[in-house]
């Protein structure tokens, strides 16, 4: 036994060293991805699953390949998604939760994590402005949005939980810039994707309240039952913040559930300078919080927050659980009663450690610094003759296009912008996404890593322009 532990220990220490080297490479600058096509990558990795198992040390090479071919989201060339960067406390907690391997359904199986999760939910509720709220960590913002829609349905039609939808024709409202997860939620809940109305937005991408009210009236006239409005704090493509106070007036008037999807924009609440963007969030009935995006906690780390206590267990409990949830002195600490999951990973430790390490002030600095980088990038694009903003940014999403020399910006430059972004990725120079807006395609720069410097943004723009010029000559625009 003891020699076996020694062997395992040796491997673990080697892997730790490998991870440290990986992080070191990142610091001195390396390709954001060693890009391979799926066919080639399949050949490089031996993915066959064996009859006979192998020793731990034989997994070493696989871990090495995993690190080599995975996209480096903490690289200073990573601008692709709504998260980026590395937090050592995240790594520590992933190790600890894996070693302890607890599940979150009952207090007795996860006493420490349960208390940490409850402390986090209280802290998040107070950020949002839910004075006596409740909440739960869930498997992503998408699922938080789905639970919010379920809560809305349950509030209006509680019997549906037992008898199903019957003939109800429910309608949900989101903006045309909202996240696709609301469509999936409508599918899952039997509401149907066609009964999600996408309300028009203004030129910044914010929901227009008058359009919302008109859409609600229309659905009432059509004999349907409006239940839910999903507003967004920081939309995925443009980073737009919907006007919550005006939307809340409407949801109150028609007695609809108001949800704020803060998956991307929620940490702006830490910033005294910028939190006005979320003014009125306390008027919502529920709120989606992702800590794995802008706060930099490793995926998955999300919560659904609810204004009124008791709502989650009312809507999500099922019965037939007495084998698990015992009516004892700790019953109020069995978070599984509020959850749609049975087994649930501990996501609280990494979040709690992160908050403890950075503090509210650290998060505030993080958000403010990213806003600074966003204005730097915006100003660069505004004054660069080869680049053009697609929309004035409100947040950390900068959508812009490369415009070839002497080309009228109204001509079709979609193809060249797509080519630029693909070439940057495949060469490992930068991971950056593209997006559609008003029938055009542009490059979507996301600033989520506060370790990035202005010089690195200069390098990115330089690479975009250089790549644009070389694509231009090949594509003969
Ligand atoms: C990313 C995102 C989501 C989905 O969150 P996940 O945690 O990735 O499931 C929902 N809404 C918005 C606005 C987002 O940007």
What does this structure look like?
With 477 residues, this protein is of the alpha/beta class. It folds into 2 domains: 103-345, Aspartate Aminotransferase, domain 2 (3-Layer(aba) Sandwich), CATH 3.40.640; 357-475, Aspartate Aminotransferase, domain 1. It is built from 14 helices and 12 strands. It has helices spanning 2-28, 38-44, 60-69, 88-100, 111-128, 141-156, 160-163, 181-188, 209-221, 244-253, 311-316, 348-383, 414-426, 454-475; strands spanning 78-79, 134-138, 170-175, 196-199, 225-232, 257-262, 286-290, 302-306, 387-389, 397-402, 431-437, 440-446. Strands 2-8-7-6-5-3-4 form a 7-stranded mixed beta sheet, with helices on both faces. α12 (348-383) crosses α14 (454-475). The chain is globular and about 65 Å long. Bound molecules: pyridoxal-5'-phosphate. The site of pyridoxal-5'-phosphate has 15 residues, from α6. Keywords: Decarboxylase, Lyase, Pyridoxal phosphate. GO terms for molecular function: aromatic-L-amino-acid decarboxylase activity; pyridoxal phosphate binding.
Question: What's the short version?
Answer:
The chain has helices spanning 2-28, 38-44, 60-69, 88-100, 111-128, 141-156, 160-163, 181-188, 209-221, 244-253, 311-316, 348-383, 414-426, 454-475, and strands at 78-79, 134-138, 170-175, 196-199, 225-232, 257-262, 286-290, 302-306, 387-389, 397-402, 431-437, 440-446. The chain is of the alpha/beta class.
């Amino acid at each position: 036994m003891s020699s076996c532990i020694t062997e395992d220990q040796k491997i673990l220490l080697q892997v730790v060293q490998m991870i440290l080297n990986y992080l070191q490479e990142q610091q001195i600058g390396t390709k954001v991805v060693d890009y391979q096509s799926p066919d080639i990558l399949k050949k490089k990795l031996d993915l066959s699953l064996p009859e006979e198992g192998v020793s731990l040390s034989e997994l070493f090479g696989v871990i090495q390949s995993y690190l080599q071919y995975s996209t480096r989201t903490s690289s200073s060339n990573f601008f692709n998604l709504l998260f980026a960067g590395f937090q050592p406390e995240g790594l520590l907690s992933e190790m600890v939760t894996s070693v302890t391997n607890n599940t979150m359904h009952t207090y007795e199986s996860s006493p420490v994590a349960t208390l940490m999760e409850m402390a986090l939910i209280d802290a998040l509720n107070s950020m949002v402005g839910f004075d006596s709220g409740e909440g739960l960590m869930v498997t992503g913002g998408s699922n938080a949005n789905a639970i919010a829609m379920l809560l809305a349905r349950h509030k209006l039609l509680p019997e549906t939980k037992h008898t199903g939808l019957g003939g109800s024709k429910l309608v949900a409202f989101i903006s045309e810039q909202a996240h696709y997860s609301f469509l999936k939620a409508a599918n899952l809940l039997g509401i149907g994707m066609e009964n999600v109305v996408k309300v028009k937005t203004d030129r910044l991408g914010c929901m227009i309240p008058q359009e919302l009210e008109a859409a609600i009236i229309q659905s009432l006239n059509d004999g349907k039952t409006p239940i839910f409005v999903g507003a967004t704090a920081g939309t995925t493509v443009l980073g737009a913040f919907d006007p919550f106070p005006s939307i809340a007036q409407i949801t109150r008037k028609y007695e609809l559930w108001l949800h704020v999807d803060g998956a991307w924009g929620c940490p702006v609440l830490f910033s005294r300078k910028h939190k006005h963007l979320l003014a009125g969030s306390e008027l919502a009935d529920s709120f989606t919080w992702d800590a794995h995006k802008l706060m930099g906690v490793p995926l998955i780390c999300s919560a659904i927050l609810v204004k009124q206590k008791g709502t989650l267990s009312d809507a999500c409990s099922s019965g037939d659980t007495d084998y698990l949830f015992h009516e004892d002195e700790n019953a109020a600490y069995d978070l599984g009663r509020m959850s749609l999951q049975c087994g649930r990973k501990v996501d609280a430790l990494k979040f709690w450690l992160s908050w403890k390490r950075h503090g509210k002030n650290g998060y505030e600095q993080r958000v403010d610094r990213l806003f600074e980088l966003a204005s730097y990038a915006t100003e660069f694009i505004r004054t660069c003759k080869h680049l053009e903003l697609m929309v004035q940014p409100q947040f950390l999403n900068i959508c812009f296009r490369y415009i070839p020399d002497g080309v009228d910006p109204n001509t079709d430059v979609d193809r060249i912008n797509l080519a630029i972004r693909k070439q940057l990725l495949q060469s490992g120079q930068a991971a950056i996404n593209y997006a559609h807006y008003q029938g055009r395609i542009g490059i979507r720069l996301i600033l989520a890593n506060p370790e990035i410097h202005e010089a690195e943004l200069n390098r990115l723009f330089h690479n975009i322009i250089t790549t644009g010029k070389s694509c231009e000559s090949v594509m003969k625009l």
